[in-house]
Amino acid sequence: MLALRKTNAAPGLEALQIPPPAPPGPGEIGIRVAAAGICGSDIHAYEWTPGYEFMAPHMPLTLGHEFAGHVAALGEGVEGFAIGDAVTAWPTIGCGRCRACREGRNQDCQARRILGLHCDGGFAAQVVAPASHCFRLPEGVDAEMGALSEPLSIADNAVEVAAITPGDAVLVLGPGPIGLGIAWIAQQRGARVLLAGFGDARRLDCARRMGIAHTADLAETSMAEAVRSCFGEKADRVIEATGVTASITDGLSVLRSSGVLVITGIHSRPLELPVTAMVRNKHQLRAAHDTTWAAWPRVLALLADPGHRAQLGLMVTHRLPLREGLRGFEMARRRDAVKILLRPGDG
């Protein structure tokens, strides 16, 4: 079968023919992949930016951790699923033994494995995942929307970490798929949301079509002016989803006293913080990475609503057969798209 593989610790990716995965073992499900999204983490792995060295011992491996498809095979002891069920999966697999795993926090397991980053993922016709990490898609949710559930669960977790409440003034930095999801979910929860980008006309237009009321292009205005114009005051919450280190200190400059800034981007450079100003302003700096078990039912419930699906589906701007996956990666690098889905079954 065709797969997009990371084969060495250097920039690049290869489209290779490989054998199908072994049949699912006890407690596992074999999934026939119908759609898989290109994520910012995939681009980092493709470019081999600092912070992804952990992948090297696991190569060669198939990338892809945002995927959905249909159950093709059931391992011994699997219950609650049937052949043909439409499913997605949380790709983060804990060891099952440590304190974090025992407490249901496999995202905090220090021995965790992530499908598509530590072991074979969804940029292929088939993938095997633990049944315990698989979720049946609600009625009306196709594989394309199912593939959005993982990045939306990341966005949901960031909103939770920010502790957003109705009426909060929330600045979201970065209109990529994660930032779009954060802004949309925060607005659904009653926050006043401003989504800001830099030279991101295509993505900011997507945000407005998704119903995100307030956007700003920081190539045309300052962050301080955008926040003042939108809220009339500093932000209660700032959520960074850019991966651009300077955006963190910029975000702190428009955060109110005792406000919360959440970092979600992956950064290749260190950051020097204005610590004294942070202390005097009682700024709370937090990080959100991956997601939680609790996020998944919330996200799947959102996707079950046809109106929500119509808005969230606007993030998908390009659909390519898997054989054109390398072209899709280059498009994503150039920001020529919002969300690109690869479809192994298309040709």
UniProtKB/TrEMBL annotation:
Keyword Zinc on entry: yes
Keyword Iron appears in the UniProt entry: no
Recorded superkingdom: Bacteria
UniProtKB keywords: Metal-binding, Oxidoreductase, Zinc
Domain Enoyl reductase (ER): 12-342
Protein name, UniProt field: Sorbitol dehydrogenase
InterPro entries to which the protein is assigned, alphabetical: ADH-like_C, ADH-like_N, ADH_Zn_CS, ER, GroES-like_sf, NAD(P)-bd_dom_sf, Zn_alcohol_dh
GO terms, molecular function: oxidoreductase activity, acting on the CH-OH group of donors, NAD or NADP as acceptor; zinc ion binding
Known cofactor(s): Zn(2+)
Stored PANTHER family: L-THREONINE 3-DEHYDROGENASE
Homology family: Belongs to the zinc-containing alcohol dehydrogenase family.
PROSITE patterns: ADH_ZINC
